[in-house]
Amino acid sequence: MPTADTEARNLTTFLQTGQTLAGTLELNRALARVLETLGRHHGMVRSFVSLLDAESNELRIVASHGLDETAVRRVTYKIGEGITGRVVQSGKPIVVPQVSREPLFLDRLAVRKKSLKRQELTFVCVPIVVNRKPLGALGVDIKYTPERDYERVTGFLSIIAAMIAQAIKVDHLIEADRRRLLDENIHLKQELRERYDFSHIIGNSNPLRQVYEQVTQVARTNTTVLLRGESGTGKELIAHAVHYNSLRAHKPFVKVSCAALPETLIESELFGYERGAFTGAHSRKKGRFELADGGTLFLDEIGDLNMSTQIKLLRVLQEREFERLGGTETIKINVRLVAATNRDLEQAMSAGQFREDLYYRLNVFTIFMPPLRERKSDVLLLADHFLEKFSREHNKNVKRISTPAIDMLASYHWPGNVRELENIIERAVLLCETGVIHGHHLPPTLQTAERSGTITRLSLDAAVQAYESDLIQDALKTTRGNRKRAAQLLDTTERILGYKVKKYGIECHRFRA
Ligand SMILES: Nc1ncnc2c1ncn2[C@@H]1O[C@H](COP(=O)(O)OP(=O)(O)OP(=O)(O)O)[C@@H](O)[C@H]1O
Ligand SMILES: [Mg+2]
Fold first, then answer.
1. What is the pLDDT of residue 2?
2. Which ligand is nearest to the CA of 234?
3. How far apart are CA 98 and CA 139, in angstroms?
4. How far apart are CA 327 and CA 346, in angstroms?
5. Whose CA is nearest to atom 27 of ligand 1?
6. Helix, strand or coil for residue 309?
7. Hey, how many other C-beta atoms are within 10 angstroms of the C-beta on 432?
């Protein structure tokens, strides 16, 4: 019968084991501590945990107590080999009451021969089972006494083994997660780099080429860059290009949008805070300046920054150091600054909304992003690029843009710049069912633009006619102006087609080239 004493001791051990295993992310060290407890409180002379190595499929001792560490590292067992190997093979515990009498005992560690002369030992080995698969074993040597209740010992060790199994399971999950995140991170970084090298910035108009040239000039320096230009012209894209073409490309690119954050939040966002700096500051938080260390900090919408933060920012730019909110430690920064705004900073300055000194600090190397209407030759390149992108994204087979639709895109003035074009093409791809984008897939603002403001709203009749004209021009394009084949394509007669060609004033010879 177990005494109340042993029961209490077992419970204490279970509790300690649970705490030890849960209390650390370093599994092997935790296992060693558990084995030590077994030695100290339960008279286990020696003990070890061996686990299957995923690659070699051999059993390797990962933690031990009372054994020579260097010897331990060398010893491996195959599944089915020796007592430990058999336990893992069968998933069942094995008890060897008297080790000296057991021929199966391999004693690779060669420790028992010596001690057996002095003291007979009992060896108990229980499997460690994870997801119903034995992944290892817990083995212990205890002093042999004839009256020992082996079932109780096995039961006790099985519980410890089950706790170890649970810890291994968690460890595997964490490891798998870590690996997945690592893979994902490498992949994402690669993708980012590819996305923002120049090849992903579309356009070869002169104004845009000048921008490329400026980026190349400035990227490899540490100079502060100010990006200006209307909304949607690609300032953020260029900010990325500056970073990914710089020597800091492998360090972080961190963005702060000064407009999206309320005034009170922006400072803790930029500079971080110490624990207790204000209500709700439960722990220290690093600011974006610190997170961007060694890399680039992109301050977007800088024209919207409030006055008090402007002063603090100015100080950081001048002295290259700052303190966290509620902190006294001075933090040095090594950060390249890129700022962007679509606001008229000069006007904001004269209205007293933007500090002059900050303006001069930022205005070291300014790149002006040209509006899309001033680089019409980029419109079609961009339209084709977005067509391909969104066809792929939405799994649609849209191949090209019809001539009338191209005319509409070309004559529009693009107040929302590239972003507007991007949205319009995405919408057209979604609406398109035929593989070709036609005029009627474009929003009404463009339709009226093409008709130079004479029609404010398209009637059903006008829309149908425009569509019909589009289809015919398209068919003629495919057949290079051959009316007969165009009529076949459209499932109509040459006579009807001829009539419509005349009605819409389509010039067939245009398609013969
Ligand atoms: N030259 C370009 N090639 C490809 N895509 C572009 C180009 N210029 C802009 N874009 C795309 O247009 C969209 C708007 O660009 P971006 O966000 O960089 O504009 P922005 O100048 O920062 O505008 P805002 O001032 O409104 O923030 C983005 O999706 C961007 O990828
Ligand atoms: Mg932007």
1. 61
2. 1
3. 15
4. 35
5. 231
6. helix
7. 22
Q: Point out the ligand nearest to the CA of residue 228.
A: 1
CA–CA dist 108, 186 (Å, integer): 43
450 CB under 6 A from ligand 1? Answer: no
Nearest residue by C-alpha to atom 12 in ligand 1:
419
pLDDT of residue 429: 95
Residue 476 tokens, joined: 């003629």
Q: What is the pTM of this model?
A: 0.58
- Look at residue 450 in the predicted model and tell me its pLDDT: 46
For the stretch 218-238, pLDDT in tens is 998 999 999 999 999 999 999
* Residue 325: strand, helix, or coil: strand
Q: Starting from the CA of residue 341, give the closest ligand.
A: 1
Tell which residue, 227, 216, 217, 203, has the closest CA to residue 368. Answer: 227
Q: Which atom of ligand 1 is nearest to the CA of 208?
A: 1
Here the tokens at position 10 are: 């077992």
Closest CA to 501 of 446, 474, 478: 474
Cα 230 to middle of ligand 1, angstroms: 10
Instruction: Please tell me the predicted confidence (pLDDT) of residue 265.
Output: 85
Q: Tell whether the model's pLDDT for residue 1 goes beyond 70.
A: no
Beta carbons within 10 angstroms of residue 377's beta carbon: 13
List the structure tokens of 251: 């360090």
Beta bridge partners of 133: 130
Task: Report whether residue 60 contacts ligand 1, using a CB cutoff of 6 Å.
Answer: no
Q: What's the whole-number mean pLDDT along residues 259-282? A: 83
For ligand 1, whether the C-beta of 203 sits within 6 Å is: yes
For ligand 1, say whether the CB of 232 is within 6 Å of any of its atoms: yes
Phi, psi angle pair for 325, to nearest 5° = -60, 130
For residue 486, what are the CA distances in angstroms to 437, 439, 471, 507?
18, 20, 10, 14
Confidence of residue 281 (pLDDT cuts 50, 70, 90): confident
Confidence of residue 124 (pLDDT cuts 50, 70, 90): very high
Nearest residue to 366 (alpha-carbon basis) of 340, 401, 348, 332: 340
Q: Is residue 343 within 6 Å of ligand 1 at its C-beta?
A: no
Alpha-carbon radius of gyration of the chain: 37
Q: Is the CB of 230 under 6 A from ligand 1?
A: no
Token digits of residue 236: 């953020």
Atom from ligand 1 closest to the CA of residue 300: 27
